[in-house]
Design a protein that fits this description.
Length: 385
């Protein structure tokens, strides 16, 4: 009679407590933000630590001493850097004299990009393991006196599995570009209606008429001076938006430039051979992820060229199927980025608050449905496409 495998679930306070080779053997590199080197760079640079409100608490699963499952996990003391907004939930807790923080969060810090959250060895019974994981996470939340558990930006299959395991599901909008076997940028534009195609061509023409030149560099071709310029642009963007220099340090970008250059794409814009703007992208197996942008000089339509059109051209050249340019931005729709649904899952320890949030999510989801339908009507593609 065979004996069912016994899984050991444990928590670690740093990604350094697990060997990079063991972690990456499970996580792979298809989704760059789950790589050991990326998560380690966040921790080593101080972006993800107790002091920053992102205290690592990663979940590991072992069978007979071998790593067979993993999940990036954090104890959060605030809701910054998440991109799934629960401030109203926190305020409701506060009004009733309860503490919303700490909370447990499964996510990639500062990265609203859909991807795997719980990674398991292929031969494991995923449904059974997820039930065990949920039970362990709820027990850990109680030990920490945490109000809740949140899983941000899982893919559709995983969010459905979390829902089956008892977690509430929430959805939100993003805007992604999809490759319809385009051979060049003009193939992409051929799908546009005449007026929309003319508008986009005008934007690219105006960029060129301003004397701007753009180039795309893989990570290993970027010089130290170009990385320094990019980081300066990154800081300027955050200074304009929020008055601080950004969540990430120069040490973080130096670390990933060294550890994973093959998955980095830097777009640089020049005027008279002087750099004026930069945009950093990450490349997965079939998806390009646009992440950070900044400029030292304001130029008409340069943001769209550096952050969108250069990325689309790269995807076409590389045969990538999707371009995820980051959160928010309805202006992306008229430039060919399709409104899509993203997901998150949630568990609240307090039954009364959980019931209230569940009612809220039902109402919110109806609004998301209506918004996505309306937004899709704004796409620039021909009516019969």
């Amino acid at each position: 009679m065979s004996v069912a495998p016994v899984l050991e679930l444990s928590f670690i306070a740093s990604i350094r407590e697990v060997e990079a080779a063991d972690w990456d053997a499970l996580a792979g590199s298809d989704y760059p933000f789950l790589r050991h080197s990326f998560l380690q760079a966040l921790e080593d640079s101080g972006a993800a630590c107790a002091e920053s409100g992102w205290q690592p608490q990663h979940l590991l699963l072992h069978e007979a001493g071998q790593l067979c499952g993993l999940m990036p996990l954090y104890i959060k003391s605030h809701s910054y850097g998440e991109y799934v907004f629960d401030w109203s939930w926190a305020n409701a807790y506060e009004r009733y004299g309860h503490d919303y923080y700490p909370k447990l969060l499964t996510a990639i810090p500062f990265t609203p990009a859909t991807g795997p959250r719980l990674v398991l060895r292929d031969d494991l019974d995923r449904d059974k393991v997820m039930l065990a994981v949920v039970s362990q996470l709820q027990a850990r939340a109680q030990q920490l006196n945490a109000s809740s558990l949140h899983i941000l930006f899982p893919d559709l299959d995983e969010t459905s599995a979390w829902q089956q395991a008892g977690l509430m599901r929430r959805s939100g909008p993003q805007y992604h570009w999809f490759n319809r076997d385009y051979q060049c940028f003009e193939d992409f534009l051929a799908d546009f209606s005449s007026r929309k195609r003319k508008n986009l061509r005008k934007e690219r023409r105006v960029v060129a008429e301003q004397g701007l030149r753009l180039e795309r560099l893989r990570g290993d071709a970027v010089s130290e001076a170009q990385w320094r310029f990019f980081f300066h642009c990154y800081q300027l963007t955050y200074a304009k938006r929020s008055g601080h220099g950004g969540y990430l340090s120069e040490a973080f970008f130096q670390a990933i430039a060294h550890a994973m250059p093959e998955q980095l794409l830097l777009v640089l814009a020049y005027h008279e051979d002087k750099p004026v703007a930069a945009a950093l992208n990450f490349e997965g197996r079939d998806t390009l992820y646009g992440r950070y942008w900044g400029c030292v000089r304001e130029c008409d339509f340069l943001h769209f060229e550096a952050c969108y059109y250069q990325g689309i051209e790269h995807c076409i050249e590389r045969g990538l199927s999707r371009f995820d340019p980051g959160a928010q931005g309805e202006h992306k729709i008229q430039r060919g980025f399709t409104p899509i649904r993203t997901y998150s899952n949630h568990w609240l320890a307090d039954p009364a608050f959980a019931d209230a949030v569940q009612r809220f999510l039902v109402e919110e989801d109806a609004h998301i449905d209506a918004y996505l339908q309306e937004a899709a009507e704004l796409l620039p593609f021909k009516q019969n496409d």
